[in-house]
Amino acid sequence: MSLGLLSLGAVALDALFGEPKGWHPLVAFGKLANRLERRFNPDGGGWRSHGVSAWVLAVLPLTLAAWLLSQLPYVGWLVGVLALYAAIGLRSLNEHAEPVAEALGAGDLERARQRVGYMVSRDTRALDEPAVARAATESVLENGSDAVFAALFWFAVAGAPGVVLYRLSNTLDAMWGYRNERFERFGWAAARIDDVLNYIPARLVALTYALLGKTATALRCWRRQAPQWDSPNAGPVMAAGAGALGVALGGPAIYHGELHERPVLGEGPAARAEDIGRAMDLVRQGVLLWLAVLIIGGWLLA
Using DSSP, how many helices (H) and how many strands (E) does the chain show? Predict the structure, then answer.
């Protein structure tokens, strides 16, 4: 069975059922990662070599297991579909974004702040309506790249082991990749590996957003604004996405009690509640485009 059809099957499972209920493999993986971090980084004293060792122990055995299972006759294709289904989070992204837009539309700013707090790591307690809309729109664009498109990319490149390697690496970056006293050294490997794995997918996502929105504006914002962003992969994605939507994102935000003066991304008015849904539509349309490319490409190469 072609990678395109397998990818379509995984996306369909996600649309029908969302994230696995009751028990999610990434939850179990997170517990393993916490144990490894306590072992290799006690009291924040781990060095880069300890972070590399912990990353290897967390990721490579499970990636090898995914490869072995994917080689099984008759059921190897099912392993791939289930691995991708567990890795993507398109429906979950919408389930987090939609309540924010609904709360803003109803004028319930306090609930909107609470709901957007589930999506972002910044302090949301004092955000006004435009800031909430901006935070949610940014999260949709960035997490669409991390949680959906990059998983599809690595599945297309390397099947089940590719998507397992990517998703576990991305999870470790979210857990260990902080630039603070505890994780500055230990989390260095997790952060850099995630940057490498996301480098090509992020730029394909930026191009996808540009093609499906205001193309010229998106490309201009990508070229001019992305280099100013502190993340080498989030910059292109969010600048192109903001340009494609014709809205302004970025700007100051408070993280862990510290004010970060972030550059402005995109062009146009400040993001509003309806722009959260527009961002989700952009992600969905991009997924359909990628699936079409994978299916048609597989058919032409067959």
Answer: 12, 4
Contacts of 170 (CB under 8 A, 6+ apart): 146, 147, 150, 194, 197, 198
Q: Which residue has the tokens 């990662």?
A: 33
Identify the domain containing residue 288 by its residue range.
3-301
pLDDT 10s digit of each residue in the chain, 302 long? 688 999 999 999 999 999 877 677 888 999 999 999 999 999 888 899 999 999 999 999 999 999 999 999 999 999 999 999 999 999 999 999 999 999 999 999 999 999 999 998 888 888 999 999 999 999 999 999 999 999 999 999 999 999 999 999 999 999 998 888 888 899 999 999 999 999 999 999 999 999 999 999 999 999 999 999 989 999 999 999 999 999 999 988 777 667 778 899 999 999 999 999 999 999 999 999 999 999 999 888 76
Q: Please list, residue by residue across 222-232, b when 16 or more beta carbons sit within 10 angstroms of its beta carbon and e when fewer do.
A: beebbeebeee
**Cα Rg for the chain, rounded, in angstroms?**
19
**21 phi and psi angles, rounded to 5 deg:** -85, 150
Q: Which residues pair with 260 in a beta bridge?
A: 253
Q: Which residues contact 201 (CB under 8 A, 6 or more apart)?
A: 145, 149, 150, 153, 154
Quick one: DSSP state of residue 253?
A: E
Q: Quote the pTM value.
A: 0.95
Number of domains in the chain: 1
Torsion, Cα 75 71 162 173, to 10 degrees, reads: 80
Position 150, amino acid: A
